[in-house]
Predict the structure.
Amino acid sequence: MNSEFQSLLLESDGILEEAKNSVDHLLDSGNWKLTSKSRQGIEGYLLEGSRDHTIKGRAEVRANFKEVLSFLWNIENSVRWQMLIEESYSIAENENLRVGYNKYRGIWPVKSRDFLVAAKYWEDSQKITMIAKSIVSDVEPERRGVVRGELKVCAFILECTGENTTQVTYVAAMDPKGKIPRFFVREISKRQTSNLEKIKKLVEQ
């Protein structure tokens, strides 16, 4: 790994450590409003008063929490569960820290969006926390005709609830940037919990 990528990972590590604290604060907030509950028991919440439409989802997955982590950390699986994603690849990584690129298809009249994101996970005996957040770097230049969005934070909290059961909590807040109808942002935010449905189905197969 060259020195540029080493410096990028080191800088990203500090950013993610700070982001982890913000996620803990979000989860402790009492302003979550239940907005949906699927037949599979997956719950969707919206943080009331949040300008960036911060959402939370919760699901029980029939799999060991380390198996869930293995699925989520494999960047090749992103196209299997993320909405509208077209490209997803790693730029630099080590064992539990990565900088990657994601591009999402636009839906008229909204242009395609892309994100340069750092991600890291922390693991203990009964819980795994995985955090992702946008970073600013010229390692992946902005593309013509694509708007560079900002992932303010995304987190997966994997808690062991049994030998082969895991409670998955998903939190996400983003700013898509550029010109985009507010109703479109709200609708995409609400649909984010469908990611949990896909993850649950794929991991339990």
